[in-house]
Every structure is written in C-alpha cells, then in structure tokens.
Design goal:
With about 55 residues, the chain is mainly alpha-helical. It has one domain. Helix content is about 65%, strand content about 0%. The protein is flat.
C-alpha cells in the first residue's frame, strides 16, 4: 500500500467493515454507527501506520 488513502481505506475495512470511503449519496451507505472501542482501535492503527511511515524516512 503506497498512498495514505489506501491505508485509511484498509483501516476502515478492517475495523469497521466499510468497503469504500467514497461518497455514495445515500445515508445508509455514507453514515455508520460504530462502537467507541472500535474507533479507538482504528485510530491506534492509523497512528501506528503513521509512526511506521515516519521511521522509514
């Protein structure tokens, strides 16, 4: 995975089961209710991905 958008989409898929982050103009498809602990896990994954990327540079 090279781009930030690809990494963010992968985290959304893994933690929330969201297949795409593209706007689909449908409340049912564009808005999702998530548990706080799931959000925390996704934010941790995003932070760790950023830290790993920074270490490579």
């Amino acid at each position: 995975m090279d781009s930030i958008d690809e990494k963010i989409t992968a985290i959304a898929k893994e933690h929330f089961g969201i297949s795409t982050l593209e706007t689909r103009r449908s409340d049912r498809l564009d808005f999702h209710e998530v548990a706080a602990w799931t959000l925390k896990a996704a934010l941790r994954a995003a932070y760790e991905a950023g830290a790993a990327s920074a270490e490579k540079k």
